[in-house]
Amino acid sequence: MSLPPREPALASPRPHIPVVGRDPWVLSGWGAIKDSEGAGEPCWGPRDALHTADPSQDPDPGGCERSFRVCPFGAGKLWVRPGALGRDFYRLLLTSCLLLRPCELQADKTSKPNILLILADDLGIGDLGCYGNDTLRTPNIDRLAEEGVRFTQHLAAAPLCTPSRAAFLTGRHSFRSGMEAIDGYRALQWNGGSGGLPANETTFARVLREQGYRTALIGKWHQGVNCVSRGDHCHHPLNHGFDYFYGMPFTLIDDCHPDRPPEVDAVFRRKLWLYTQVMVLGVLTLAGCKALDLLPIPWKAVLGLAGLVALFFLSWYASFGFVRRWNCVLMRNDEVVEQPMALETVTFRMLREAVAYIERNKHVPFLLFVSLLHVHIPLVTTEKFLGKSLHGLYGDNVEEMDWVVGEILGAIEENGLKNSTFTYFTSDHGGHLEARDGHRQLGGWNGIYKGGKGMAGWEGGIRVPGIFRWPGVLPAGQLIHEPTSLMDIFPTVVQLAGGQMPQDRVIDGRSLLPLLLGSVQYSAHEFLFHYCGMHLHAARWHQIDSGRVWKVHYVTPQFHPEGAGACYGRGVYPCSGTGVTHHSPPLLFDLSSDPSEAEPLSPDSEPLYDTVISRVAQALEAHRQTLSPVPHQFSVGNIIWKPWLQPCCGTFPFCSCKEDEASTPPGPDP
Ligand SMILES: [Ca+2]
């Protein structure tokens, strides 16, 4: 895999692509209100003149029934069809709307774009062709980028699954909802734990459903299930605004694969197994001594000790010995439909669900959040893709993921929804450098960026792909280097749906529509703060007047071995304690000239050093004023497995069921 050149970050192999702020569109005015082929009658005018209230009765179902009301002009309303407009004209309308009345994008159901969000799991930014990779084949995602806008400084709010997704769903840092660790566990460990996204959090799905959207999550959740009893589903997707769910309430882990070594609490489990063996050996020794009359102890005592050892073993094995059964579960809405989940067909089944969802909702606005199981270990890959990439099992899995994305995009196009669908693709954080099988790399590639999954400060942990497509509205092939966040998706889609932002809480995300439409040149994020658990590790300052992006590190992980760029052999990298280094004075980098964070600046090498440190400290102090304590969802009491919370089909603890084989769809053509 070749390293892309330095800035622009993960540079485009297509240098002619226009860049916001350097080659903006020129608005050409009000002329070209034609269909996409430049023919036909203009698709605008009073709404009633355009289509009937019932889309099924619409004589032009592929046309104006998907119209999009943009904003009032004078006393009337103007209705336009995205695909029918000249791009400049449409962009002007939307820009005017944003400037005049930010939420005027609201209208009835037929006026809203569909929203398709695709989130990859653990995908490195350097794994996609459109971000500079020239050895992995990702033609479908590359095409998405060519037809849309690609962000180069798109940042996860946290470097691990659960907190990053909590922030993505709510538009605010995960510690604001308690979905971050103080120390210890940094992600939910069990379906049977009581921690999870609190019911009083507002997801974008909830807001969009209130705006008349159908809302679905297909794929991974990893935000908890139950609180106090099995089936209360307080953290379940259906309790967070999704009206359809098909997928894993947890996440793929090595334990889901019968041939892979255990992953959940693997070190702790090895210790428990060792303790059990020592205890058994002790009891056997006692029994032998008793049998040979070497020790004057009664048999009752020996049997009592044996019983205690058995109890100890059963108590831990009941949870850890059945990790696959407890955690690798497939649900449809409230119901467990497969336990443990069969890996061979799960990709096809989830894809089938996504395609079917698009098909049956094509006449109403929908939010479809496809949360891919790719490319998390154990890298479940179907036969068609095995051994086909240049990068082993990981590469095979990336290429299969691209095929899945292509099939979903194909369904959008086949149903005539391409121009009325706002599509987004990203990853929940950077590639997992420590995922290895011996010397075989099983994790992603973060390109020129230092660090990876688990590391909150270094770019490799948090810089992810960010691709947006909305043909006819957003420009094709545009590149934006501004700092943006996964948390921005919340306000962006809420604005698209005409919803209201929650007013009773801090929202850290900012709508990307002005940036996407080119009505502004700069991100709304002058500062971004990068947390590892509850610990601030770094801060970023986009100094607009100079165009420079500064990065200040207060805490960094200790690589193992030193200088390795990762923490090999040490399990999950810690956010605090002996595994990190505190920097006083902090490390300072200029990402504009040093995106790999290779050369820390000093007062001698950078005249602005003190100014930058001081300005960022000032912003940090203001940021800290917005923090308030909340219950911790990752406390030991919430994290541990509780039998009474375990999702289960059949009779507990023999939970077992299998989804109807006849409904298993065929895979891709060989
Ligand atoms: Ca992940």
Automatic annotation (TrEMBL):
GO cellular component, as recorded: endoplasmic reticulum
Gene Ontology molecular function: arylsulfatase activity; metal ion binding
Keywords tagged on the record: Calcium, Hydrolase, Membrane, Metal-binding, Transmembrane, Transmembrane helix
Gene encoding the protein: ARSD
Residues annotated as domain Sulfatase N-terminal: 113-498
Coiled coil residues, start to end: none
Named cofactor requirement(s): Ca(2+)
UniProt similarity note: Belongs to the sulfatase family.
InterPro entries, A to Z: Alkaline_phosphatase_core_sf, Sulfatase, Sulfatase_CS, Sulfatase_N
Listed transmembrane segments: 272-289, 301-323
Protein name (database record): Arylsulfatase D
Species, as recorded: Chrysochloris asiatica
PROSITE patterns linked: SULFATASE_1, SULFATASE_2
